Amino acid sequence: MKTIQSSIFETVYRQSIEEPEKFWGKTAEEVHWYKRWERVLNGSRPPFYRWFAGGILNSCYNALDLHVENGRGDQVALIYDSPVTTTIKKFSYRELRDTVARCAGGLKKIGIGKGDRVVIYMPMIPEAVIAMLACARIGAIHSVVFGGFASKELASRINDAQPKAIISASCGIEVDRIIEYKPLLDAAVEMSDNAPEHCVIVQRPEAAATLRPGRDIDWTEFMDAVPADCVPVGATDPLYILYTSGTTGVPKGVLRDNGGHMVAMKWSMKNIYGVAPGEVFWAASDVGWVVGHSYIVYAPLALGCTTILYEGKSVGTPDPGAFWRVISDHGVSVLFTAPTAFRAIRREDPAGKYIGRYDLSSLRMLFLAGERCDPDTLAWAQERLGIPVIDHWWQTETGWAIGGNVAGLELLPIKPGSCTRAVPGYDVRVINDEGEELPAGETGNIVIRLPLPPGCLTGLWQNDRDYVSTYLAEFPGYYVTGDAGYIDEDGYLWIMGRTDDIINTAGHRLSTGAMEEVLASHPDVAECAVCGVSDPVKGEIPLGFIVLKAGTTKDHAEIIRDVIGMVREKIGPIASFKKAVIVRRLPKTRSGKILRRTMKKIADGEEYRVPATIDDPTTLDEIAQSLSAIGYPAK
Ligand code: COA
Ligand code: AMP
Question: 335 and 275 in contact (C-beta within 8 Å)?
C-alpha cells in the first residue's frame, strides 16, 4: 500500500502501533496522577485490556482544580449560551471548581460515594456539566441519559445502572416548546424495578415541577452543602456508563475508565483538534451523547480550554446564522458538530449570506462526525468558511476518533467522503466474513486489532458476556466496529455504512430493531420492518413497513398514526419516526430473512439486484407501489 507522504503523522502512527506502551506511557505524563501507574498496559487477561493499572488520579481534579492551581482560575472554563432562554452565563475555572465541589458535597450529603451510580437526565444547562464533574470528583459513576429519550428508555437505563440518585430538571426547551421532564422522570421511575433513593431537580423558571416529599430534593437546597474534595480513584475505576443503541431494544452500557480516558482526551485535543490551552472549543452536540461527554466536558477542560454549552439548534434560533453568532461572540477556534447541522444551515441559507454577517476570523477548523459527511456538504462548508473541514469517524464505544485527519499533528490532504487515516493508537483493518484481510479498495468489515487504545470502552456495565459476544467473539483478536468500508491505496479510510440495524438520524444513533419491537406490539400488526431511508437534512430517517393481521378492520391511516405515536412515546421524539407504510407482505429470502437493504434501495430510488434467494420477487414490485403512494423515491 502506498501512502501520501506525511513524515510526522507516519512516524507518530507507527510508534503508537509498534510500541504502544512507550507511546501512551509518555503521553500519560501530561496528566496529573496522585500515584503513577504500575503498568502502562495490562494485557494478562485478553481480550480484556487495562491501561495504567495501579495509577491513581481524579478526572475532576485534572479538569478543574489543576488549572486553578496552575494560574487559570480566572479564565473562563464554561460558557452557557442558550438562545432558547436568551441567556449567556460564564463560569471561570475557579467558579466552576467551587460549584462542582458544592455539588459533590450535595451528593455526599445524600449518601452517594465512590462506585455509586448517578443517572443524569438533563437538558443542556450548566447543572448537567456540574453534576457530571461532581460525580467524577467523588468517584461516583455518572450515567447521562439524553433528554430526548422517553420514559421507557430512561427506565431501561435505570434498571441496568441501578442508580442511588437521579439528577434532572423541571423542563427542557425545544426551540419554542417546553418539554416537561418531571412527568417523564416520574413515569420512568414508576416503570423501573430500581427506584432511586433521591431525585434532585433543577427548577427552571419556564416550568416548575411538583416535588415528591421524601424522595425529591430541590437543586438549590441540594447545593447548600459543604464542598467536597477530589477523591483519588484507580485509573481502571469506572468514570461513567453511557448507554447506546445496540441491535435490540436493550441499550448497551458502555463503560469508560478514568485513567486511559483522561490520557486520550488530552492527547486528542492537542493532536487531533489542534487546540491549545486557553482557546475556545465548541462541540455543538448534547451532553447526553458521547461527543458531549468527551468534547463538551472532559477533553476541553482537561486541556484548560474554554468550552461552550449551547442550548439550541443549528438553525432557527433565532436565524440561520445561529452558529456564526456563537462563534463570533465567543471567539471559537475550533467547531465540532454533525453534518446534519450543516445540511440544515445550508437548506436555510444556501448562499451562505449569514456567514458574511459575522466575524468568524477566530475559526480555524471545522470537525464533523456522527455520520459520513457527504462530499457536497463538506465542499459547501469548506468553500463558505474558507477553513479545513474535517470528517472524522468514531463511536460511543471508542469515546474519541478512530479515523480522522490528525490536524494538530499534521493536516493531511482532505479527500471528501473519506475520514482520512486511522488515528494513532488504532490498528484498523478491513476483513471479509472469513476473517481474511482485504486488499486496498475492497469493502469489508472494519475491525480494530486489540488492544484498543486508552479511552475506549473497557467493557459493558456488569456484562462481560455481551461485551465479548457483541464486539470481540466474531473475529478473535479484533474489535468489531459494526461499520463496513475500505482502506484505499493511500491508506485512507472510507466508512460506507453499518453492518447491523443501527441508523444515524440527525447524528443520533438509533436501533431500527428497537423500533420494530414497538411496532410489533401494536395489536393489529402481524409483522414489520424498519429501514433507514435517505433524508436531505437528517441523513437517514426511519421508515416503517407494516403487515397487518388478517381480519383487521381498523382504518390504515389510524394504525399508522398509532404506531408513530407509540414510537414517540416509547423511544422518544428523537427517533424521528414519522413515516410508515402498510404492505401486503415483506420481501424475504427463502430462509425467512427480511430484505431490508433492498427495501431501503427501493425507497431511495437506487438500483438494486433482485436477490437470487428471494422467495417471491413480486413482493418487491408491491413494495415499490406502496412506497410510491407515499412519495418514495423522493428524488
Ligand atoms: N428533549 C426533548 N425532545 C428533543 C430533544 C430533547 N433534548 N432533542 C430533540 N428533541 C426532539 C425535537 O424537538 C424533535 O421533535 P419533533 O419531531 O417534535 O420536531 C425530535 O426530537 C427530533 O430532533 P432532532 O433530530 O434534533 O431534529 P430537529 O428537526 O429538531 O433538528 C437539527 C435538526 C439538524 C437542526 C438538529 O438536530 C441539530 O442542530 N443538530 C446538530 C448537532 C447535533 O445534534 N449533534 C449530535 C451528535 S454530534
Ligand atoms: P455513535 O455511537 O452515536 O457515535 O455512532 C457511531 C456510528 O456512527 C459509527 O459506528 C458509524 O456508523 C457512524 N459514524 C460516526 N461518525 C462517522 C463518520 N465520520 N463517517 C461515517 N460514519 C460515522
Answer: no
